[in-house]
């Protein structure tokens, strides 16, 4: 994970920042686009876009089971430290 890329993403995408903060406060959560949209009070399209960016950066993991896709915080310890640092300073 590139810390600078994540920092830039969070500065440009307030929904991504809300999503990441949600997962940092609820690190064992796994949720769908609809559930996450409810938690961060944002539209599904915005959330879908932000989830894609966060997954691409490696901050979140995507798990598809059948027709359901769930998202969760990465379990990589080094990446978690970077995420924590960037989200606190965003």
Care to describe what's here?
This protein has 90 residues and is of the alpha+beta class. It has one domain: Arc Repressor Mutant, subunit A (Orthogonal Bundle). It is 62% helix and 13% strand. The protein contains 5 helices and 2 strands; from the N terminus they run ααααββα. It has a two-stranded antiparallel ribbon. Strand 1 and strand 2 form a beta hairpin. The radius of gyration is 12 Å and the shape is globular. The chain starts with a helix and ends with a helix. The model has no long low-confidence stretch (mean pLDDT 94).
CATH class: Mainly Alpha
What's the CATH architecture name?
Answer: Orthogonal Bundle
CA distance, first residue to last residue? 17 Å
How many E strands?
2
The largest pleated sheet is described as: 2 strands, antiparallel
Helix content: 55-70%
Uncertain segments? none
Structural class: alpha+beta
Task: Give the strand order, joined by hyphens, for the main sheet.
Answer: 1-2
SS element count, helices: 5
Number of domains: 1
CATH level 3 topology: Arc Repressor Mutant, subunit A
- Principal-axis shape equals globular
Output the CATH homologous superfamily.
Answer: Winged helix-like DNA-binding domain superfamily/Winged helix DNA-binding domain
How big a fraction of the residues is strand? 5-15%
Overall pLDDT level:
94
Element-by-element helix/strand order: HHHHEEH
Radius of gyration: 12 Å
Observed structural traits:
62% helix, Arc Repressor Mutant, subunit A, 90 residues, single chain, 5 helices, two-stranded antiparallel ribbon, alpha+beta
């Amino acid at each position: 994970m590139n810390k600078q890329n994540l920092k830039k993403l969070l500065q440009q995408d307030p929904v991504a920042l809300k999503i990441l903060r949600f997962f940092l406060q609820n690190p064992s959560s796994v949720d769908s686009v609809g559930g996450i949209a409810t938690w961060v009070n944002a539209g599904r399209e915005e959330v879908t876009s932000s989830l894609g960016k966060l997954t691409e950066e490696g901050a979140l993991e995507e798990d598809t089971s059948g027709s359901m896709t769930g998202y969760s915080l990465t379990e990589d310890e080094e990446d978690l430290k970077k995420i924590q640092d960037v989200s606190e300073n965003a």
